[in-house]
Write a structure and sequence with these properties.
The chain has 361 residues and is an alpha+beta fold. Helix content is 25%, strand content 22%. Helix 1 packs across helix 4. The structure holds zinc ion (3 copies).
Length: 361
């Protein structure tokens, strides 16, 4: 029951959670030259003799931190990062003056080898494996938060494919624990809390409710005539019992998709076994849709969860954890870098429709 053929869109959409992050959705041809050249193909080999992350080369990695299900028959392996961006040792105290401020680069930077098969993509992994992977994220975040009270945030993310900045072809995620809460997470926490104070409701839950409302009619206040009829359900990409994948109305990236628990939950660390299985299903199917539409998705994804040790009483009620998936199909232009305004050349409604149309097994 969608409307007729998509009309060209040219509007600035305000991110409902972080209003300062607005997006110019402009589907007209003129906004398109930023398309990246055909991205370098990703490595799809199952095993590579010289790869330090491949089975048989365990001695080539930095020390192992954990392996699943066990080191001798590992499917997932966490190791130290050879080139950590943050580390243990206090950096030499720099002499700073005036407005130059620094914080010690204290933290942790680890690599999670997602799978023992070199070039396997997320949608090619089994659902039990994906449940194991997200369980490994949860466990490691938990351990890192417990290991040192100076760690304020643990960020789990994945770069997949050369277009997304993956420097090692073997499928892997990264875990970075930092002594500061990243700005974008803080902005989400602060804004969702303000919304909660005003509306006594979690904004993420409200957005999910809205996504699950199938039709909305907007009437003109004066004449009472129908001004606009919208099919709000058009943003849902995938849904299971406990999770939903949605295309944000103000997506920064053409094929950006977010996955959220349907029931309110602020902290990813609370995810249960059952939840993991359900998440694995939504994740695999969403990635398969992206891969089919894009003809091989290269992407980043990252987990946003309530920071620990945050001085905030109602954040448990106002914040809602989620996974943001941002496929890379274009490179930012001077306009975007200069204005801070993201440009999205595919209307989120159109993108969602294409993703939903993919036939899965
Ligand atoms: Zn490998
Ligand atoms: Zn919520
Ligand atoms: Zn987020």
């Amino acid at each position: 029951m969608t409307e007729s053929a998509p009309k060209p869109v040219r509007e600035i959409r305000i991110n409902p959670i972080v209003p300062s992050e607005s997006v110019l959705v402009a589907t007209a041809r003129g906004m398109r030259p930023k398309k990246a050249e055909a991205p370098a193909p990703r490595d799809t080999r199952a095993h590579v003799e010289t790869c330090p992350f491949c089975t048989g080369n365990e001695h080539m990695t930095p020390p192992v931190i954990a392996s699943y299900p066990a080191e001798k028959n590992w499917e997932i392996r966490i190791v130290e990062n050879l080139y950590p961006v943050l580390g243990d040792d206090r950096s030499n105290p720099n002499l700073t003056f005036g407005l130059q401020q620094t914080i010690d680069g204290y933290g942790r930077h680890e690599v999670m080898i997602d799978h023992n098969q070199h070039g396997i993509a997320i949608h090619e992994m089994s659902e039990p494996h994906l449940a194991l992977l997200f369980g490994a994220y949860r466990d490691r975040m938990q351990q890192l938060y417990r290991s040192n009270s100076r760690l304020r945030y643990v960020l789990v993310f994945k770069n997949f494919g050369p277009a997304a900045g993956a420097s090692i072809a073997h499928t892997h995620s990264q875990v970075i624990a930092t002594p500061v809460i990243p700005d974008n997470v803080q902005a989400e926490v602060t804004n969702s809390r303000a919304f909660y104070h005003k509306n006594h409701h979690c904004i993420f839950c409200s957005l999910i409710d809205e996504a699950l409302t199938f039709e909305a009619t907007i009437y003109d206040r004066e004449s009472g005539e129908i001004r606009r009829k919208i099919n709000v359900g058009q943003y849902v990409i995938e849904r299971a019992g406990k999770f939903i994948a949605v295309k944000p109305f103000a997506s920064r990236y053409e094929w950006e998709v977010h996955i959220l628990p349907l029931q309110h939950q602020s902290d990813f660390l609370r995810i249960s076994r059952d939840d993991l299985n359900d998440l694995a299903r939504v994740m695999r199917r969403t990635m398969a849709r992206l891969d089919a539409v894009l003809g091989g998705a290269q992407y980043n994804y990252f987990l946003h969860s309530l920071p620990h040790d945050i001085q905030c009483e109602d954040c448990e009620a106002s914040y809602h954890w989620h996974l943001e998936i941002t496929p890379r199909t274009s490179i930012p232009t001077g306009f975007e870098l200069g204005s801070g305004l993201f440009v999205n050349t595919v209307a989120p409604e159109t993108a969602a429709e294409k993703l939903r149309a993919v036939q899965l097994d």
